[in-house]
């Protein structure tokens, strides 16, 4: 890798809890999402959770179909909590670890989903809070092993 030939970077995705539990072996760094203000890790940025649906179709006259991530995902938890407050008119229709799969189901008009505003895809449209209940925001934080103090500092500087 040019200036640092012995540095090996492997990128993996997963649910926050599982990734943080693996910090130290095999991961030296984990970027994870937490409820805003919980103060875990080194704060990188704040992301607003938003409802997303197909660009051309949003039929809320029937039972709301949801495409979400597996249990333990904050976005899933927040969606279910928000909808439970307004009543039983929804059902879980699709579950996947894959963001691309969840996006595709929503883009086809088969379900509504929840995304982070900062990574919102062009294939979907925002569903306003006047239609579906508001969602919380998340802190995106960096977690490192203690042995990476200098490396952590350099990484954080490069992310700003």
From TrEMBL:
<dbReference type="InterPro" id="IPR005119">
    <property type="entry name" value="LysR_subst-bd"/>
</dbReference>
<dbReference type="Pfam" id="PF03466">
    <property type="entry name" value="LysR_substrate"/>
</dbReference>
<protein>
    <submittedName>
        <fullName>LysR substrate binding domain protein</fullName>
    </submittedName>
</protein>
<feature type="domain" description="LysR substrate-binding">
    <location>
        <begin position="3"/>
        <end position="144"/>
    </location>
</feature>
């Amino acid at each position: 890798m040019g200036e640092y030939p012995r540095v090996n970077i492997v990128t993996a995705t997963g649910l926050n809890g599982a990734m943080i539990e693996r910090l130290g072996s095999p991961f030296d760094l984990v970027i994870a999402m937490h409820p805003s203000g919980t103060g875990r890790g080194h704060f990188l940025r704040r992301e607003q959770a938003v409802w997303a649906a197909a660009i051309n179709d949003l039929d809320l006259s029937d039972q709301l179909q949801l495409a979400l991530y597996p249990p333990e995902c904050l976005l899933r938890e927040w969606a279910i909590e928000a909808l439970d407050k307004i009543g039983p008119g929804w059902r879980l229709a699709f579950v996947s670890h894959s963001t691309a799969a969840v996006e595709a189901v929503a883009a086809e008009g088969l379900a509504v989903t929840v995304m982070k505003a900062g990574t919102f895809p062009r294939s979907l449209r925002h569903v306003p809070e006047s239609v579906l209940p508001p969602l919380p925001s998340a802190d995106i934080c960096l977690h490192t092993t203690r042995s990476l103090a200098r490396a952590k500092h350099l990484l954080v500087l490069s992310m700003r």
